[in-house]
Amino acid sequence: MALDKQSLEQVLRTPKHQDVTESPLVKTVIINDPANAAAFVEALEWSETLEAHNARRILCLFDAKAVPYLLAKLPTASANTRKEGLEIFWALLAGEDHWTVREVLNQIKADLTHLLNDTQPLPDNMPEYIERDFQGRICDLAFMVTQQLIDPQYDQSLFRSLDDHGRNEQIKRLKARSFGSLVA
Predict the structure, then answer these.
(1) What dihedral angle (degrees, nearest 10) is formed by the CA atoms of 69, 71, 76, 78?
(2) pLDDT tens, 94-114?
(3) Could you tell me which of 125, 122, 128 has the C-alpha nearest to residue 145?
């Protein structure tokens, strides 16, 4: 069942002291339709807000069937929303069996390729006192998440140590292959 705007706003404004994931609306209506995941993507834009907090919690309740709806919204979203969406994409598939991951990666190839082509810098929300070893781009995060889903033992340290040109070459090689066929 499609989620109406009033219900969406009500759920996103659930105070932090209440567990939004225990809401009857969330448990009985929202997560029962994977297409509802798309309605929460826009709320990810401002990561420090109550709405973004609740959207992340609700999105993580969905299963792998919601991934195509989530990723379909990311190519036209802001850099922050893309970053948040890619992290949720990983969370939704990380615990799935390799057959499910393979099937989903094949379904989302077009949207994932769009993200792998996005060279916008990742938003930097970390405090200044934290040393950064890597200033990535949206395409870098999309690559690392995809590689981690393809091979849970993937070590991203080599990729992170490459310059933009080196990372672009790794991304180009991944895009040339069928993502689903790479899953072990």
Answers:
(1) 120
(2) 999 999 999 999 999 999 999
(3) 122
Q: Which residues pair with 121 in a beta bridge?
A: 137
Q: How far is CA 2 from CA 30, 31, 45, 66, in A?
A: 8, 11, 22, 14
One-letter amino acid for residue 108 of the chain: I
Q: Are 128 and 142 in contact (CB under 8 A)?
A: no
The SS3 call for residue 119 is coil
Helices (H), 22-175: 24-25, 50-59, 67-73, 79-93, 98-107, 109-116, 138-150, 157-161, 164-175
**Nearest Cα residue to 77 out of 4, 142, 160:** 142
pLDDT-derived band at 134, boundaries 50, 70, 90: confident
